[in-house]
């Protein structure tokens, strides 16, 4: 997705050669028009798969996911990283370890919002090691639902996440794929020397 890739190059800030800060349009301030176009790309790719639900994880996955939910005309469900006191019904849970943040989150969704009839499109802002996406996939499997694919806004292709998901047989669509952040410079797939 050209416009997203240009935005990443123009406004992304590389931190310590491995983390890309995209606070200008995705992780802090959100560019709604860009998120709508992101969602339209997910829709174009997955529209014939019978999607009944978008699944993501709070917080940063919600922006692209709510736009996708609008495009597919289905609900957006987000996994919560802490068990809220208001969540009193039965839940599916899984542990997601973040290497970036060196922290494990015990994430939950209510069983009443995901069932064996669902065809789920998982969406997230970043794909790095794949822990978040694999955790969401685990929740889908616990519900007996189908995961029809995974939509990612920014993939750090130099990390193992995409390969891990593909080796599970999942259809992964990443709209911006980063080959390297070395030298604090964004190099996209296809731009390598
Ligand atoms: P993984 O899920 O692919 O294994 O990624 P990892 O554990 O490395 O990353 C954990 C968190 O950091 C995730 O957000 C993920 O989206 C984000 N992340 C990973 N690499 C980058 C990066 O280069 N730049 C930015 N901006 N984020 C990155 P999270 O913990 O779920 O937090 P939230 O922001 O969604 O609340
Ligand atoms: Na994030
Ligand atoms: Na995320």
UniProtKB/TrEMBL annotation:
<dbReference type="GO" id="GO:0046110">
    <property type="term" value="P:xanthine metabolic process"/>
</dbReference>
<dbReference type="GO" id="GO:0006166">
    <property type="term" value="P:purine ribonucleoside salvage"/>
</dbReference>
<dbReference type="Pfam" id="PF00156">
    <property type="entry name" value="Pribosyltran"/>
</dbReference>
<keyword id="KW-0328">Glycosyltransferase</keyword>
<dbReference type="InterPro" id="IPR029057">
    <property type="entry name" value="PRTase-like"/>
</dbReference>
<feature type="binding site">
    <location>
        <position position="20"/>
    </location>
    <ligand>
        <name>xanthine</name>
    </ligand>
</feature>
<dbReference type="GO" id="GO:0032265">
    <property type="term" value="P:XMP salvage"/>
</dbReference>
<comment type="subunit">
    <text>Homodimer.</text>
</comment>
<feature type="domain" description="Phosphoribosyltransferase">
    <location>
        <begin position="26"/>
        <end position="158"/>
    </location>
</feature>
<dbReference type="GO" id="GO:0005737">
    <property type="term" value="C:cytoplasm"/>
</dbReference>
<feature type="binding site">
    <location>
        <position position="27"/>
    </location>
    <ligand>
        <name>xanthine</name>
    </ligand>
</feature>
<keyword id="KW-0808">Transferase</keyword>
<dbReference type="InterPro" id="IPR010079">
    <property type="entry name" value="Xanthine_PRibTrfase"/>
</dbReference>
<keyword id="KW-0660">Purine salvage</keyword>
<dbReference type="GO" id="GO:0000310">
    <property type="term" value="F:xanthine phosphoribosyltransferase activity"/>
</dbReference>
<feature type="binding site">
    <location>
        <position position="156"/>
    </location>
    <ligand>
        <name>xanthine</name>
    </ligand>
</feature>
<keyword id="KW-0963">Cytoplasm</keyword>
<comment type="function">
    <text>Converts the preformed base xanthine, a product of nucleic acid breakdown, to xanthosine 5'-monophosphate (XMP), so it can be reused for RNA or DNA synthesis.</text>
</comment>
<comment type="similarity">
    <text>Belongs to the purine/pyrimidine phosphoribosyltransferase family. Xpt subfamily.</text>
</comment>
<dbReference type="InterPro" id="IPR000836">
    <property type="entry name" value="PRTase_dom"/>
</dbReference>
<dbReference type="InterPro" id="IPR050118">
    <property type="entry name" value="Pur/Pyrimidine_PRTase"/>
</dbReference>
<feature type="binding site">
    <location>
        <begin position="128"/>
        <end position="132"/>
    </location>
    <ligand>
        <name>5-phospho-alpha-D-ribose 1-diphosphate</name>
    </ligand>
</feature>
<protein>
    <recommendedName>
        <fullName>Xanthine phosphoribosyltransferase</fullName>
        <ecNumber>2.4.2.22</ecNumber>
    </recommendedName>
</protein>
<comment type="pathway">
    <text>Purine metabolism; XMP biosynthesis via salvage pathway; XMP from xanthine: step 1/1.</text>
</comment>
């Amino acid at each position: 997705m050209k416009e997203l890739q240009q935005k990443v190059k123009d406004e992304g800030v590389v931190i310590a050669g491995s983390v890309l800060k995209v606070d200008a349009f995705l992780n802090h301030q959100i560019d709604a028009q860009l998120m709508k176009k992101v969602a339209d790309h997910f829709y174009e790719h997955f529209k014939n798969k019978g999607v009944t639900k978008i699944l993501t994880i709070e917080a940063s996955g919600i922006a692209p996911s709510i736009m996708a939910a609008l495009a597919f005309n289905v609900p957006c469900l987000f996994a919560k990283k802490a068990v809220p006191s208001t969540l009193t019904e039965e839940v599916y849970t899984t542990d997601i370890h973040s290497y970036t943040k060196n922290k494990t989150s015990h994430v939950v969704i209510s069983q009443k919002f995901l069932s064996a009839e669902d065809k789920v499109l998982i969406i997230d802002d970043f794909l790095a090691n794949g822990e978040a996406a694999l955790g969401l996939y685990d929740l889908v499997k616990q519900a007996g639902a189908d995961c029809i694919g995974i939509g990612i806004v920014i993939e750090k292709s130099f990390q193992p996440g995409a390969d891990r998901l593909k080796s599970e047989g999942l259809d992964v669509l990443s709209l911006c794929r980063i080959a390297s952040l070395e030298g604090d410079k964004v190099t996209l797939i296809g731009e390598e020397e």
